[in-house]
Amino acid sequence: MTEGRRAAAGRTGGKLLADALVAQGVTHAFCVPGESYLDLLDGLYSVRNRLQLVTCRFEAGAVHMAEAYGKLTGKPGVAIVTRGPGACHASIGVHVAFQDSTPLVLLVGQIPVEETDRETFQEVDYRQMFGPLAKWVTQIDDEKRIPELMAHAFDVATSGRPGPVVVAISEEMQKRLSTAPDIGPAEVLPPHPAPDAMDRVMKMLGAAKKPLAVLGGSRWTEQGRADIRDWLLANDLPVSVAFRRMGLFDGTSANYVGDLGVGADGALVAKAKESDLILAIGTRIGEPVSQGYTLLDMAGATPIVHVYPDQAEIGRVYRPALGIVSEVNAFAAAAKAAGAVKKPAWSGWTKELRAARLAQAKPQDYEGPLNLATALQALEKELPPDTIFTTDAGNFATWPNRFMHFSEKQDFLGPTNGAMGYSVPAAIGAKITHPDRTVIAFVGDGGFLMTGQEIATAFHHSVNPIILVFNNQMYGTIRMYQERVYPARVSGTALTNPDFAKFIEAFGGHGEIVETTDELVPAVKRAMASGKPAIVEVRTNPEQVTNRATIADLRAQAAKAAGATEAAQPAQAARTTPAPRRTGPRLR
């Protein structure tokens, strides 16, 4: 068929898919190529001047990069993987996007339709596989429906509570021709607070003496963050952020009181329990924020104003005094317009919570040549005001959370589902999204060797994130729990690591090793000046397993608890009347 006759007959499904991405405003897609979507790859070649295809080394890394793009832009990140093993690898990133409420669209190559249910090569039913992990899962078998289903996928990813959508694309469908027209995004106005919502909020606030705001959620715009900041400051409210949402409020502000998440300051948790009004704005009030569902009474003893874009999440666990279904930026605009309470009764309360935040952020006199708290606080003063930070899961992550003060123009990306291996690919995705901004990744030695090979993607696409690898030669979080429950019985948590500086040098990057407090800032400065992807390996004290306890501390606490238990058992036995001896058969 000649080119002219082919054009008259329509576009291939692969070309339709590529054009559908462009029609939805997609500028970046992150992929690991596979034979199950060769026709889509060919279609993407045709739009290469409008859509950058980022070739990655591992499917989980590709989805983490796309998820970071979604966090930073508020638009769906796009990842493309092949069928079977590729989809399984990608599922980690889908779970991150689901629990983090990040808009994401994952395209998965699929087997030919006529081979369905034969357990053919790499066959997986993606509706079953991704059903619990995604907002919607679909499969396109009819090329005529590509524009329709792709448009709907993007609508679902961004509507209500944002999240991931998985679209399987059958192999032969991508080869067939169709004249179906492209469909662009629909202009949909976001949900706003009900007409009397802010009047009721201000009335409840006026009656409070110990209010606490908790900011969370996704898809905040720069204007929305500014609006909610202005309202919170106008009312002199103490402001905390949900787990790994430090980028939502200026940590240097006199109203910032810390993060409510894993490793939260005990003083903040205690004060939150004293609060007489919780303003939960954008957060689901999930397990990390609620401290394992212990922070608040589920029946509503502490009044909660819960603002969330999806009604199904309001009251899901905690019954609010007032639920407001609203997109977060729309609520922020309405709140700013509502003004301030005339005579707030909580100025002393706000100062008290801020003082507790500053007290916990004061570096302790940690043993060893490297005081990580002091080093991180020195580093924060040297970084650009628009730095993007990414973090992995692990105990190391509680150090920057506790001791650093992230400022207003900075972004902080982290997996609220606790996925290891997130930080390095997220940093690369962030740098590809914003090449002019400095990107700093925090990652442990365990997490780095899960997805650290993605540093090759940074070289391939000429971006230069700076990776801080905190090396304590163990899976630190699991070791911490292990020492609490089974002290001195170390099993499965020790690690053997490479020289991480030489690892990056093998790619042609910049490597540094830091072992003392004063070495961190100069090392990061040299890394930034190099203009290359860089790793700064920070060798931490393995004994200092958390920023609040050593391994020796945990073992002592476990021994004390065991002693108390043993002492209580004889006393309990003495108080118990022996049961009469049975002479007949036991009844079950």
Automatic annotation (TrEMBL):
Residues 559-582 have a biased composition (Low complexity). Residues 199-333 form the Thiamine pyrophosphate enzyme central domain. The keyword tRNA-binding does not apply. The keyword Oxidoreductase does not apply. InterPro entries: DHS-like_NAD/FAD-binding_dom (IPR029035), THDP-binding (IPR029061), Thiamin_PyroP_enz_cen_dom (IPR012000), Thiamin_PyroP_enz_TPP-bd_dom (IPR012001), TPP-bd_CS (IPR000399), TPP_enz (IPR045229), TPP_enzyme_TPP-bd (IPR011766). Keywords: Thiamine pyrophosphate. Pfam families: TPP_enzyme_C (PF02775), TPP_enzyme_M (PF00205), TPP_enzyme_N (PF02776). Residues 12-128 form the Thiamine pyrophosphate enzyme N-terminal TPP-binding domain. Residues 559-588 are annotated as: Disordered. Residues 392-538 form the Thiamine pyrophosphate enzyme TPP-binding domain. It comes from the Bacteria. SUPFAM superfamilies: DHS-like NAD/FAD-binding domain, Thiamin diphosphate-binding fold (THDP-binding). Belongs to the TPP enzyme family. This is Thiamine pyrophosphate-binding protein. It comes from Neoroseomonas terrae.
